[in-house]
Amino acid sequence: MLSQQELITLFKETRAQSELICSFLETEDYVVQPVVDVSPPKWHLGHTTWFFEEFVLKEYAKDYQLFDRHSAYVFNSYYESVGEKVIRTDRGNLSRPTVAWVYEYRNFVTKAMARFLEKEKVSEKLCGIIEIGCHHEKQHQELLLTDIKYILGHNPLFPVYNKQFKENPIQDIERDWVKIEEGVYEIGHKSDDFCYDNELGVHKVYINNFEISNKLVTNKEYIEFIEAGGYEDVLLWHAEGWDWKNTNRISSPCYWHKINGEWHQYTLGGMTPLIPDAPLSHISFYEAFAYAQWKGMRLPTEAEWEIAQNNFNWGSRWEWTESAYTPYPGFKTAEGALGEYNGKFMVSQKVLRGGSVATSKKHTRPTYRNFFHPQLRWQFTGLRLAR
Amino acid sequence: MLSQQELITLFKETRAQSELICSFLETEDYVVQPVVDVSPPKWHLGHTTWFFEEFVLKEYAKDYQLFDRHSAYVFNSYYESVGEKVIRTDRGNLSRPTVAWVYEYRNFVTKAMARFLEKEKVSEKLCGIIEIGCHHEKQHQELLLTDIKYILGHNPLFPVYNKQFKENPIQDIERDWVKIEEGVYEIGHKSDDFCYDNELGVHKVYINNFEISNKLVTNKEYIEFIEAGGYEDVLLWHAEGWDWKNTNRISSPCYWHKINGEWHQYTLGGMTPLIPDAPLSHISFYEAFAYAQWKGMRLPTEAEWEIAQNNFNWGSRWEWTESAYTPYPGFKTAEGALGEYNGKFMVSQKVLRGGSVATSKKHTRPTYRNFFHPQLRWQFTGLRLAR
Amino acid sequence: MLSQQELITLFKETRAQSELICSFLETEDYVVQPVVDVSPPKWHLGHTTWFFEEFVLKEYAKDYQLFDRHSAYVFNSYYESVGEKVIRTDRGNLSRPTVAWVYEYRNFVTKAMARFLEKEKVSEKLCGIIEIGCHHEKQHQELLLTDIKYILGHNPLFPVYNKQFKENPIQDIERDWVKIEEGVYEIGHKSDDFCYDNELGVHKVYINNFEISNKLVTNKEYIEFIEAGGYEDVLLWHAEGWDWKNTNRISSPCYWHKINGEWHQYTLGGMTPLIPDAPLSHISFYEAFAYAQWKGMRLPTEAEWEIAQNNFNWGSRWEWTESAYTPYPGFKTAEGALGEYNGKFMVSQKVLRGGSVATSKKHTRPTYRNFFHPQLRWQFTGLRLAR
Amino acid sequence: MLSQQELITLFKETRAQSELICSFLETEDYVVQPVVDVSPPKWHLGHTTWFFEEFVLKEYAKDYQLFDRHSAYVFNSYYESVGEKVIRTDRGNLSRPTVAWVYEYRNFVTKAMARFLEKEKVSEKLCGIIEIGCHHEKQHQELLLTDIKYILGHNPLFPVYNKQFKENPIQDIERDWVKIEEGVYEIGHKSDDFCYDNELGVHKVYINNFEISNKLVTNKEYIEFIEAGGYEDVLLWHAEGWDWKNTNRISSPCYWHKINGEWHQYTLGGMTPLIPDAPLSHISFYEAFAYAQWKGMRLPTEAEWEIAQNNFNWGSRWEWTESAYTPYPGFKTAEGALGEYNGKFMVSQKVLRGGSVATSKKHTRPTYRNFFHPQLRWQFTGLRLAR
């Protein structure tokens, strides 16, 4: 359990970071929702604030007055059990509350929380809730970056978000294969540090001999797949991946553009020529799978990845695994509304491991289980081969 | 033909009026597009500006430099023949160009136009184009108001646009019936004043005896229809109207809300109790038709309306007619891109006559042919009975 | 009013004709519904039978016992006011009742009707209902042919329906123009012969000078339009026609196939090389309009067509007119369920005049108002130019 | 490897069984496809025949002449790599080839195969292909039964398929819990008998202590869940299950009908009162999961099920497991078109274990991995609790 002072530091630094991320935006950028998965930045700022107001201040802070009885409910996301909410597809249709209002709301709640944390001794349970609230906001910080990238990167003017943002670290190593011996291993979160409920339940798994690459697949390698006709060879694809690709006329990763015969990539630093040695990014699970098929290899499972991960560097791309997102043995949903956090998504999604250039600092770890539907590409998703 | 001075006045006053309408908005209100028919206000401001740049300055103003080679094309609407354009459903996904940029663009073009009009003698043809540009912008002023009403009126916070805006003038007269004698009449636009191409072609029509009400149907009268089960009686409805009503779960006009058992109406002045004697507004053609069926009467045709119109007051509501929007005898599409203005919409739409509280001053007349699809309700649409 | 003997003859000949049409089918052909507008032939046979059972025998024949209390209701079409019905899109999902059952049902009702007509003196009102029932069945005979054509013509095996069926009569005349003088004319159905309610209300119209072709547009002429790029020139099309064409990837009339570089046409007699001089068929209103635009001409209105029609031959193609399907002055919906026959479709459709090679004999006349949505092509639709 | 005589027996008995299943149908029942997952029976009969013609006779039988060069290709299902095919959603739109044609085609191919098997010594490889062809047809026999149930059970007349068909065996035992000890176990197909490629790769798994019920959940137990408001308690459901349920207005298993206050169930033997002690059937994975949540338990994984299965009776219902359908360690896709059999479906589906009253005899085994999307209910799907 964090000390109260550590909690205060975590809280303040988290709140500040969200605002730093948004400091590069124009007011208009906060408002739009070009596709359902991409929420307006002002919604993220409001929603992470609503979380603290709803689950902490309303419950625990004596005499706390809601900032605004009428508006705040628009920032509920999926907590069906906490009353009325704006349907997700409508988030981009709401010009009000304004961005200025959202910042006032943030300041109001941040100050009330700070006052509360300085005055009241928080119980272990409440500390846990606040810590979740901070990590929840860190998750939304990553979403802020990926959603901003989608908003600006699908605008025909391709505006720059922040020239300094570095998306494409080069992996300056030779490709090599980490060999893991067959046997019983233990996975799951062990320490007392923060983790989500879906990582809990340390348990044994039996693993066969396998090898895993020390290096993510690069842009250059993926171009070979494209040029070899990988997008046109039905035998490399899942049936639903093939349909997805055809329906959406996909023939390259998201954000790739061929301009005057040269591959370019939209990045948060603007449109730029594709860097051949950078790790591939913004691919769907289907594309990751088809690439691995083409190489005669496969994707690792999440258990393999976790067991092998201290043998290679990771953290620039979320790495698709072959594993579906299902509960660990002994998984228990938390009581009440916070029980809606993870468990209710445990069907039809794939696990991703690692972390990305957009992941908030200290917000990932070897046991972290990220999950997305197999067709989604707006996260910084990449791929590491196994065999 | 207008004198050059009249043209300058018309132009300046038109440009100023659009900005006055928007002066009540927050930046965020300029950006969203909750449904496809409702464009973001910044799009209207940009599009009406693009019209003058594209069709006047680029063609006629020597040495004119485009304000911005890259951005302006996002404001093309439907002129397929004038190159690339952003698809309509995407207008609300574009956070850039910003509102500030749009105002700079407006100022740049307004000033360039003003300089041009003060320096150059415009030909009759060019005068016609500029006049169309002004009337085009007046049309968009009406759309600005109805689109703003939709944006704010579908926000769960129901923000006020402008407390002073009066939507609901009372018709302070007894209902009476204007009788028109059977015979040959002439309709269509006769004078030299401005009109659209779809009003031209004065032509004779043969009209049977008919009567038309001097008064629009009121809210109170429509409530009687609702309470008599009008929305549940299939025999009153067109087949496609019945489907539309069921699919969209419609049981009252747009913007009506029953709050604590009392009918309220969202207006540009905010949420307010429904005014019983105000003219009914925001109904579809299907609802207008079903009401008339229920009364054992009918809607007038556009020819009947035009012949009878100087016998009653009109202008607070667009009045649905039974007439489909088809070309007048001898209708000719204009040459070039401006030929896309009216003719290409002459199928599957209904004619509305009159004008509304949102119509720009001097922008309607007895021969004006407005048109919308039968299901649309976001305009100030009402109904006048005939028999 | 028909004599009782005439009524009996009409009834028997009508019933026999439907069965003759279906005698060329395999059992399986009676069942399928490839698109919503195309009903399974067994549905047509059952529905026309249900009409007589529901509106005649149940009401007027003492002691009549329903053929089957449970099954017959599946043959209600759109009579919302006559109780439960199977939704239209589900017609092709029903394997039961079987085709054999439907024929038994037909025989049962046909015999009951024949007995009734031989025994009872029918009133004028009932005579009218039975006559409508016969004409209703004749309408469905045309639909049977066009629906069968769709079912077989969209089967990849392109089976022959009936080698003897002649779709493509040559118009063996020179193109000429019929000139009609400006003035007041009368249109609408005058004689005592059968007609639908939508033709009633003889009324005066004022017509301007116009010319209308004595000859339908031919396949050869339409190929010129295709080869001149008519399908790619946006300025020729209505906005919604352009979208329709693009969404559905239309670039030639329905049933046209280019096989080894030669145009072929699927006909009820099988796949055959296109006959250049045959009248064009199976086009949408949008295509008819675009062709006329390309020729610098237009489509006639329905009034023009009716006034001019005795100056040319017609009857091989339904001819799209510019007129929308709206009520004639004084139109009154019939009382009760039969009131759903015509009036409820009077929105968003276009009038077609004439008749086609699939129209039942004696089932059309100069005042007949056929109507379809502008995008539909499965009827034998063609076009005659006016100017 | 089967002896040639065993192969002949397997082949003949398989072919006969498909025809026996269809012997209860009317011709019309063979044709319809009410939803995309349900194929017309004639398609199943043709497709299983095409399999032998395409993969055996065309390749291996000297001088074999195709039954019909033009028609057979309509029976390709999803073998993208074997040329043109009719899209799946269109299967129910094809009245031709007729049912009689399909039976001729079956007889032709069955006889050619029999002749071939009696004359030629088949290689091990070919024996494997033919065996797959037989098991493939057995899979389609199960689909025939479930598709027929859907076709007749969604017909408003609820026709009986076969009065003798028994769907609802009572489990005449007390509920008890099988306890399995933690440790390393081996799963996967071991013997030389036939199995699919997805069962291969015997491998070790580590299993925690768990208990599994000896008895499937019964109708009576599920009614308790319904009556306790299980369908209305959001906290019991996956997010996408909740949406599925609401969108499709689901509040009971498929084929359940409340008639005069009593639960009934459509069965292949007709509509019948629900049997309280029969095993629950026709539920989605979402419903299985929600029920288990409500009981405070869970579904077993497929490994748990396989390890425990010889401690209880199974085979009347396909049992949803928590496991996603992913490849076993070392899974290899077969070469060529048959490689499309299993691997391409290994995403977004759930594994079901066991077998059902509709499963062909000898066509299931403890290692059999069935798989369906979580929302599907037309199979005989049930649920067994674990904890």
From TrEMBL, chains A, B, C, D:
Q: Which organism is it from?
A: Autumnicola musiva
For this entry, the protein name equals Ergothioneine biosynthesis protein EgtB
Q: Where exactly are the transmembrane stretches of this chain?
A: none
Q: What taxonomic ancestry is recorded?
A: Bacteria, Pseudomonadati, Bacteroidota, Flavobacteriia, Flavobacteriales
Coiled-coil segments: none
Which InterPro entries does the UniProt record give? CTDL_fold, EgtB, Sulfatase_Mod_Factor_Kinase, SUMF_dom, SUMF_sf
Signal sequence residues:
none
- Domain Sulfatase-modifying factor enzyme-like intervals: 175-308, 315-387
